[in-house]
Amino acid sequence: MRARRLRASLRGWGGVGAMAAVCALAVVLALLLPLARTSGGEDAGTGGGKAARAEQARAAEECADPEKQTLSPSGADGPTIEEIKNRQGEKRKLVVGVDQNSYRWGYRNPNSTGAAELEGFDIDLVHRIAEDILGDPDAVQFKAIPTNQRIPAIQEGRVDMVVRTMTINCDRLADVAFSAPYFKTGQQVLAPKSSKISGYDDSLADARICTAEGSTAYSTLEQGREDGDLPGSADISRTVPNQLDCLVRLQLGEVDAVVTDGALAASQAAQDPTVELKGEAFTTEYYGVAMKKDADDLVRRVNQILVDYRKDTSGGWQASYDKWLSATLGAESKDSEPPAPQYLRKS
Amino acid sequence: MPSVPPQQTRATTPPPAPDRRRTAFAEGLDQLRAAATTEPGRLRIIGAVLALLVVAFGAVTAWQVNDRATAADSVLNRSQPISSDAADIYRSLADANTAASSGFLAGRAESGENRVRYEKGIRTAAEKLVAAASNSDPGDPSAAAISKLNRLLPEYKGLVEQARTYNRQGFPVGGAYLRYANEKMQKEMLPAAEDLYKKENQRLRDDYADATPYPWAAIALGVVALAALAWAQHRNYRRTNRVLNHGLVAATAAATVVLLWLVVGHSVARAGLNDSYDHGVRSLNVLTDARIASLKARGNENLTLVSRGAETKKVGEETYDAYDYDFQQDIAALGKGLALAEDLADDTEGGKPVTAAMGNMKEWQKRHSAARAEDENGEYQKALDRVIGAKGATGECFDSVDANLATALKHETNEFRSAAGGGLDAMSGLAIGAAVLAVLGAAGAVLGIGRRLSEYR
């Protein structure tokens, strides 16, 4: 749909202009790609070109920069926060939807002594939010939710918020409210090291690709196939409840490749030395905390917490990154840091 | 009616014979008619008919009884054991799966006991599958289910072993493997096992249906044979004023014994078989279903904690945790099954374990609610302790329910075996006895008539 609109607008400008733009783009890419690509495959040009085109299509979208569509930070209590604080006794907890299958993001370490405690980068953030709102980092009731249940869980009030590697995008903004971004990532391809698949490109022809049901990965692939970025022969019907289930299918040879957020793909690769990330991330995405659409006070509060969390050098964002993610994403966290937040949403 | 010499008849009939068979038949009939005009001829015919009737009675009795005895033997020694094996396959598969999920929940604290339980479940299922395979023919409806299970079992085991290996390394992909294994079990293996169980149960019911109906053909023939014998003797008495013809009396006695033996023997066997069905098979089915319900309940209780609210189910306006909802259904099925089993239990020895299981189940429900309350309050570890912990956990209740149901099943199996065995015994010897007596009876009839015939020479 996006592409159609793009093509229509291109026609509107006139063929010559469009051709010129494409040529210019190609030149720029030819100059830039060698710098951006470290691995450098033979098809780097085509892959990069497609990624750029997808980027351009995104820019043409009416809802530009979804990660900026959030409310300005504030530490004040409102009706939503009051309601949480008024919970009595054992129930005085923040109910948070998380994942228990994302290695180093939100997972249950089978070998941890506590036996049942969830841990990871997302979980650290949850504890910080609970500490700020309820004064106790452990005043949390974790609910594990599958990828496609994140939005219904919020809408039906089963959880106060979802902190679960959830990408901020325009479609979702229609259903829920997001905090400012707390992490930057992009879709990436994961395949066995021995596989011929080299990235998000023609090498995916005839490949069976696994994605999580209701994930950004799936909608991106769907769009990609429509736009022609993804070969039409690629089979994207293999969806599973959780991105980690894709690793199982990949190991069992039921699929040829996995597409998921780079951050999560790295977590999968960390659990199996025979698979690796193929090519660069072909989208740019930001993770945000999702809340009910009308929970304005909570959104502002979480944004405030995120500002403090980023500033806190001893026990904040950086410390959590170093603890959980540096092993899989590299000691340098710059590629994962979200941009300085902007708060464009007014109400 | 004037008697026509047979030669004449033979001479007149051939010319208009378009159909030779008809003619031959007509010829025989005419011969018979001719014979029937003289008393020795009539006696010959009567003797032949009597002998034929008695032999036919014996043969049909032997055939029908043999059929029923074979079916009864199949009930006792084939279809019931196979159907209970099929139930065992289902139970051990579900048991292994439950043990595997408990092991996952326990994490590093996984007990050796769980491992043993899992291994035992897999082993039992594999053994019973081999037995079931050897008992089924390639075209059997159950053969497909058996081969499917044979194919899936190693796949399942492979997934669980992968899960275990990854768990030990601390990777959450182990949990993903376990979910996949569980899905395979719930969506493919257990339905196949249930299918097998249902088919074998159907076979058992078919065998019962073959074993119990009254052998009406044999009984009717017996009555006809006895009536014919009585008529022949009455005729004899009228013609000769002799009361007893030894041969005919012997034939009548033999036929009477066979008829009585048939009716009494079959009635006893039928009673025994019906008893084995009402007090054995029905109880066994109810108990097996209850045991399976308790296993399913336990499995779902574990999965409630494994999935941590990941799946919900909407019923009307209310939203439930999908696994807890299934648990409640399973517990309700268990309660219903136990109540029915209590009704069916016809002695204290059979009733006691069922009543005990009922008590265990009530305690289980109580503890389960407590565990759910902890989980709803976010006290996951406490909820876990209340489900798989060492003391006071719901696991204890489940184990007791299972053990009590196993005791009850054992008792009912014995009940079944003794009732069905008694039924089968009542039919033993009947087929051969009927054949021998019928031959003797036929001989008696022939000799008896022969004695009268000899008076005409």
TrEMBL record, chain B:
Transmembrane segments: 43-65, 214-232, 244-264, 426-449
UniProt superkingdom: Bacteria
Region annotation Disordered: where it falls in the sequence: 1-21
Protein name (database record): Secreted protein
Organism: Streptomyces fuscus
The keyword Transmembrane helix appears for this protein: yes
Keywords tagged on the record: Membrane, Transmembrane, Transmembrane helix
